[in-house]
Specification:
Chain lengths: 302, 354
């Protein structure tokens, strides 16, 4: 399967292990990644907050580049925030031919134009809807037996439900659980799975931001999770990189590893933890894997 | 007629007993509302069930509750839909969140919601002199506030606000949407004062975590979070308000870094969000303090090679030709003249307008 691949900024900046692990799992899932090297930042909601038309034009350019990619009609991202920010712009662009034409004028110099109706999916949606859970299950080399995984979605990929195409036929707000089970793991339910990691206000109200991260991590600890998995690198920053600070704010030890979605998939597909960049996390995923033998799950910690 | 089972959250704080769940099976047509089901349970089985309601037509805002974990108006939710969405076929109804329970499904709106509404001076402060007859305004200057005027004060957005969950002092989605109703009104005389106040308040417009909960919660399409973003736009661009919460600095830094690199440069974003939009920001005291506070995280990230010195010193950047295209878009759409916004709530979709 060929996709126009948008890795986002953070996956190539502060969470390089995300982009790297996606590159590792792609061939094992027969996904051909044609990277959108010319595309710009999605704006992460901040550019849309500043000037919605500007965000719409930058993303229309990205969509037009994806539509120019030969041999595929599908764009794929690996970031909940990119998914949400781009879906917001696409919703406005698709709503009105007149508005779309006005925005396309800003792309005319490059000979680009966005046509209504691009399919832009996060890896999570692609795994379930295009590859399929049965196919994924068939490709598992190292089932995540007895590994208790808490899903953490990130707001941008679950709300607003109608904009993100979540309905009875596409229960996308439950896909992480389905993928964890297909990989042989056990889903841990806890209060924070669909809540906000706090990242957007880390520079505005640090205490509230870290309280959010700390609370969800603590809830996952109490529910008995070995680790969390997230399709959002920004959530990863607040939940993993900032975890030492979150521990201070909530006044308890957390020590909860947080995996990127392609890392969890990669472990089950048999890739070594090092190749997935898991040694780069701030919180060592010691409860997930035995580093000397690469055994995953209950046996790793016991 | 069909049978539906309700699982109601019962709680009487005055009794000293803990909250508990209670199930009742009722008979109604599937297209009737959850409110009618609750009222039938109250009439047939237990007159002590506490529920507040009035119009039964989704306009008075009295019957806000959580149905299967999601806030909504009980009178605006069909029984068949609610049963289908529940995890086990039983329709679960509980009081809204973020507000204290008075009894069963009734929460204390005064204690949280109305106090916050009053906080934003929810009336028009008219420009003087007030015209003798109607105050005539052009349609296009006011059409934008009709979205926030659709609010019926039901509290559904307050119930599930995730920022309020960790910071109860956050002014919150309903009150901030109300604030925009006046900040966006050309007849109001205090736009700057209102915005300055809401930007400087540590629990004001920059305390919103952008989680979209209120957009999903609102039964009237008010999209409170979008109104909060409009307040930020007006504060920063129309009034040049630089706040003490780094709201303006963060937004300006983000927007200008993407213009400069085409991609986000996180290593620069953090210091600039505190120290201002300049490459020298990291040497300013405000940024230095924060970087020092974050040392445990930064040190570990460098140690684990999550963040490499190369990534910090030589950030990723688009190729020259693409960067020029990005800059052209910025020049066409940003910083010049009037700011346009395409709002689907106001304009509708092509297919709806045909």
């Amino acid at each position: 399967m060929k996709v126009a691949y948008w890795p986002g900024c953070v996956s190539r900046g502060f969470t390089p292990e995300l982009h790297g692990s996606m590159a590792r799992i792609a061939p094992l899932l027969d996904i051909e990644l044609v990277q959108l090297d010319r595309a710009s930042c999605c704006g992460a909601g901040v550019i849309a907050e500043h000037n919605p038309e500007l965000a719409d034009a930058l993303n229309a350019r990205t969509f037009a580049l994806a539509q120019q990619t030969e041999g595929t009609a599908l764009m794929m991202n690996i970031c909940s925030t990119c998914q949400g920010a781009q879906s917001e712009c696409q919703e406005r662009l698709d709503a009105s031919a007149e508005y779309r034409a006005r925005i396309n004028e800003t792309l005319a110099d490059e000979g680009l134009s966005y046509e209504k109706g691009l399919s832009n999916k996060n890896l999570l949606w692609l795994l379930v809807e295009d590859i399929g859970l049965d196919e994924l299950r068939d490709r598992v080399q190292r089932p995540l037996t007895d590994l208790r995984v808490g899903p953490f979605y990130g707001c941008y990929i679950v709300r607003p439900t109608d904009r993100l195409g979540i309905d009875d036929d596409h229960p996308r707000d439950g896909y992480l659980g389905q993928v964890i089970e297909a990989l042989g793991g056990t889903v841990t339910d806890y209060a924070g799975s669909h809540k906000c990691c706090g990242f957007p206000i880390i520079t505005m109200n640090k205490e509230a931001s870290l309280k959010q991260a700390g609370r969800h991590l603590g809830d996952a600890v109490d529910a008995g999770a070995d680790c969390l998995v997230t399709p959002c690198p920004l959530c990863h920053l607040n939940l993993d990189l900032q975890q030492p600070l979150a521990e201070r704010v909530v006044g308890r030890e957390l020590n909860m590893p947080v995996l990127h979605l392609p890392q969890l998939v990669g472990l089950a597909l048999g890739i070594s933890p090092e190749q997935l960049g898991m040694q780069r996390h701030v919180v060592k995923p010691a409860s997930v894997i035995d580093w000397t033998t690469s055994v995953v799950g209950e046996w790793a910690s016991g | 007629m069909a049978e539906f089972t309700l699982r109601l959250r019962r709680y009487d704080p005055e009794s000293g007993d803990a909250p508990y769940w209670e199930e009742h099976t009722i008979e109604l047509e599937p297209h009737r509302s959850v409110l009618e089901a609750i009222l039938q349970a109250k009439a047939r089985f237990d007159g002590s069930i506490g529920i507040r309601c009035s119009c039964r037509a989704a306009i008075c805002g009295s019957c806000g509750v959580r149905i299967n974990g999601h806030p909504d108006l009980a009178c605006h939710t069909h029984l068949d839909k609610a049963a289908k969405q529940s995890s086990d076929g039983v329709i679960e109804v509980e009081p809204m969140g973020n507000m204290p329970v008075i009894k069963d499904l009734i929460v204390d709106m005064e204690e949280v919601h109305w106090k916050k509404i009053r906080r934003v001076t929810p009336w028009l402060i008219a420009k003087q002199p007030v015209p003798e007859r109607e105050y005539i305004v052009p349609r296009e200057t006011m059409v934008d506030v009709t979205q926030s005027m659709a609010c019926i004060q039901c509290g559904a957005c307050v119930s599930d606000c995730l920022a309020m969950e960790v910071d109860p002092e956050f002014i919150g989605p309903a009150a901030l949407a109300k604030a925009y109703r006046f900040v966006g009104d050309p007849r109001d005389d205090q736009h700057y004062e209102r915005l300055k106040d809401l930007a400087e308040d540590p629990h004001g417009i920059y305390d919103c975590t952008h989680c979209f909960m209120c957009i999903d919660a609102c039964p009237k399409g008010v999209a409170p979070m979008s109104q909060i973003m409009r307040l930020r736009r007006r504060a920063i661009h129309d009034h040049g308000i630089v706040d003490r919460n780094n709201g303006e600095r963060h937004e300006e830094a983000f927007v200008s870094l993407v213009r400069q690199y085409g991609l986000l440069n996180e290593a620069e974003l953090l210091p600039r969000s505190y120290g201002g939009d300049s490459a020298l920001a990291k040497f300013k005291p405000a940024a230095g303090k924060v970087l020092l506070d974050s040392l445990p995280s930064i040190a570990k990230a460098l140690l684990r090679r999550k963040v490499t010195p190369a990534a910090v010193l030589k950030p990723h950047k688009l190729a020259k030709q693409d960067l020029q295209a990005v800059k052209r878009i910025y020049e066409t759409l940003d910083g010049k003249g009037e700011r346009n916004e395409f709002n689907i709530y106001i304009s509708g979709r092509d297919e709806d307008n045909q």
